[in-house]
Amino acid sequence: MQEFPKGFLWGGATAANQLEGAYDVDGKGLSIADALPGGPERFNIVDQPDFDWKIDPDKYTYPNHEGIDFYHHFKEDIALFAEMGFKCYRFSIAWSRIFPNGDDAEPNEKGLQFYDQVIDECLKYHIEPVITISHYELPLNLVTTYGGWKNRQLIGFFENYAKVVLTRYASRVKYWMTFNEINSALHFPVMSQGLVSSNGGNVMQNRYQAWHNQFVAGAKAVAIAHELRSDLQIGCMLLYATTYAYDANPVNQLAALKENQAMNHFCGDVQVRGKYPLYTESLMNHYGFSFKDLTVTADDLAVLAANPVDYIGFSYYMSTAVNVTDKSLGTANGNLVGGVKNPFLESSDWGWQIDPTGLRIALNELANRYNKPVFVVENGLGAKDVVAADGSIHDDYRINYLREHIEAIRGAISDGVPVMGYTPWGCIDLVSASTGQMSKRYGFIYVDLDDEGHGTGKRSKKDSFTWYQHVIETNGDTK
């Protein structure tokens, strides 16, 4: 059996906007997540041409406002992570908790103090913090006043924000990431770019301009990080869905190649290699514009070239298949991406195709494409958990899913892939980003709250808690 390397970073992952709650506490400003209605129709709602980011509690629910109240329960929750044996904990900083409006002259000290406490609590248990600087929670003012990431002014606002948090925490935090699932904007730009139909999100040129601005902002954060601490590791973070051609038809093979370039590779190529790839013009021409139509300066390109990321963090939940020759095939939805149904795969309760071998392929593709370490910072199974009469939660389906994916990582390590660690998503139940639901649960720890936010909030261990505890303790025994 292939051994996991010594020092492998076993842990779990969450995001501020999905679990912290306390959305208007201690000086925190509103974020785009605070204005997203709950429920499976949330993306359809925000894509309406008259969506204006107004919060309307009479019409919608807003589960992100309360989350699981990690803000007031972080010590209890981190103690549970420590009991599982976490070597690291990936979490994010809420930008609007530090700069309530995004463009403030001075940071909010109470927000900074909160993350001081979270970091110190992790370190108390010898848990390495892994911090995402921006995870789907752009300050709302940067959307309503500036139009989101298509506006170059946000580069400076982000640089200021990154400088503040990196300077404050770098001595205690070695591992960082810039933008969560930055490439998800290809299909849904609302969360990562603050773009919807009403402010130009349906125009692809705006999405690519927003990406460029984020690439430059991220590179500036890399520069700040490396100046502060020579051994600090700062990565990009991609949504990776291994993409297959449905069959051996060359037309579908070419379509799969193009989909890989557009979705899986473009954002990584720029951030890891420090320059735009050869297929950039072809990609943009496909959407009806040219690279020269973007606002790109020589200084921008120099910053990108000088500051590539140190590693590739990525989420992996599913694979997808491409078929452009047979329109009769049914579609399969997933983590902000879709494709045709793959007849060789089973699906989750939410229709996401389960493909552990695809994770091994993803790890090989990323490591060999970039020759840098890779970090699986999200992976997991969203499912409807049932609490038994005695309070137990038997989630063998989750254990089986995670076991198969950990074995896929083991296989990639045997292939020579330098894998840094594994942080399954939603290690404690939280609000789903794609559906705004609590009932779509990922955690090892059950939180007694329903989709309307009703419940005690009590934490309890699922069967997977003890199983993952054993995996970590043995550095990879999944039995």
UniProtKB/TrEMBL annotation:
One of its GO terms (cellular component) is cytosol. GO terms for molecular function: beta-glucosidase activity. InterPro entries: GH, GH_1_N_CS, Glyco_hydro_1, Glyco_hydro_1_AS. The active site is at E378. Keywords: Glycosidase, Hydrolase. One of its GO terms (biological process) is carbohydrate catabolic process. The keyword Cytoplasm does not apply. Belongs to the glycosyl hydrolase 1 family. This is 6-phospho-beta-glucosidase. It comes from Lacticaseibacillus manihotivorans DSM 13343 = JCM 12514.
